[in-house]
Specification:
This protein has 162 residues and is α/β, with parallel strands linked by helices. The protein is built from five helices and eight strands; from the N terminus they run H-E-H-E-E-H-E-H-E-E-E-H-E. The chain has a five-stranded mixed beta sheet. Strands 1-7-6 form a three-stranded antiparallel beta sheet. The N and C termini lie far apart (33 Å).
Length: 162
């Protein structure tokens, strides 16, 4: 069973990780998220769930919301096969998430540990605003804390300049 918003909050509490959670209407895009009047808009994360052309490798790219990610440049820099956005079915299968709820917390649902995570170095020592596996809330949490959860889960993780 995929983790819920309540599961994420309980996990953060259990691990004594500091966070701030803000409830809001369901959002499906960054623009909708920014329209919610959330605190710390400069810390909102954009999350791209992508795959290679053979559906062999899956990647989660998390960066500041205003950054543009060129998948061709990403491919060259990180030596991947051609990339495209993963389908909603892949998103549910790999991370237990629906469209609009993509988040690094979804990695904790990746039982096969086959999704590679790329976190923007610009977040490395800051708060990041991400969904708690539900697009009706945003959690502000330290990027290093999220990275530790991902590493402890066993997924490959890279801090990179995006």
């Amino acid at each position: 069973m995929p983790l819920t918003k309540d599961d994420i909050v309980r996990l953060l509490d259990d691990k004594k990780i500091k966070y701030e959670i803000v409830e809001h209407k369901a959002v499906y895009t960054i623009d909708e998220m920014l329209e919610c009047g959330l605190p710390h808009p400069e810390q909102i994360a954009k999350n791209l769930f992508i795959r290679d052309d053979k559906k062999r490798r899956y990647y989660l790219i998390t960066c500041l919301e205003d950054k543009k990610i060129n998948l061709k440049e990403f491919r060259k820099e990180f030596d991947t096969r051609p990339l495209t956005f993963a389908s909603e079915e892949d998103l549910m299968d790999k991370m237990g998430l629906i469209r609009g709820a993509v988040t690094p917390f979804g990695i904790l649902n990746n039982d096969d540990r086959d999704v590679v995570v790329y976190l923007d170095k610009d977040f490395e020592h800051k708060l990041m605003g991400i969904h708690p596996c539900d697009n009706t809330a945003t959690v502000y949490v330290g990027c290093r804390d999220v990275a530790k959860l991902i590493k402890d889960h066993g997924n490959e993780l890279h801090f990179v300049k995006l």
